[in-house]
Amino acid sequence: MNLRRIIGGLVLFFTLAACANTSKDTNSLLWKISGNGLKTPSYLFGTHHLIPLSFLDSIAGLNEVFEATEQTVGELDMSKINEMQMKIMGASIMPNEYNYQTLLSEPDFQLLDKTLKELIGVGLDQLGRMKPAMLSNLISITLYQKYYPNLSGGKSIDQHFQDEAVKRSRPVKSLETAEEQIHTLLGSQTIERQAEMLACMVNYPEMLKTQMDKLQTAYLAQDLKALNALYEEELPDDPCPSTQEEKDVINKNRNIQWLQILPAIMQEKSSFIAVGCLHLVGKDGLIEGLRKLGYKVEAVK
Predict the structure, then answer these.
(1) CA distance 289 to 57
(2) For residue 281, what is the DSSP state?
(3) Pick from 292, 290, 249, 251: which is nearest to 271 by CA?
């Protein structure tokens, strides 16, 4: 098992999500931001953190707008990925007062152990000190690599844009610190709640596969309507529903924080902003948030 490689994917994977589009704008993953005192426009691009770079060839105007900007902005500074991996390892350890024998029923304990051995190659005898949220994400990233071997691995879109900025001697800025993203990943739920969601995941693996398939198809088609339907879908018999508070931690609350710092970043230099596409649209998204701040935000066609 190459745990370090898996954790590297995990840094990107946990923000992987569908785009939610509630406006009537043209479907697009690329958006121009202008007005409100900006001397030159900035651009916002919605990424899928595990899609291959070849997908970028299908985005009309992408290369042109990237070349027209002066700096690149991402969720994290990817040049510090190794440092973040080490911090994740430290934060992933479960407090001593918890163990999976007491957190899970015996059937769920055995099923989790079997799932880990089948997917990752080792079971709870080696991974039993990791927080449930860490195991949930390790299972998710490994399943993704299993289901989509031709689309997994290699450089992420997020990393690509930052690397290209460095090649052009452009600044790279981040919207979050490693500590903030690690808290969202591993510290925003109680250990008990993490264990509940982990047990549900291993009991209903087909549900995760279905969601991944829908997301994959919709994103590759740049079909924001389908992505919106997937994001807003409320299954009446969903065995593993997230609370609104949990959804807000991943998306809304982070958008609010980013909207407080993006104006100064864009005022300083024309910026290419690449973040997970969940953060772009919807009533709590960056597109509507920027419009409320007085910017003109329009799809690049």
Answers:
(1) 28
(2) S
(3) 290
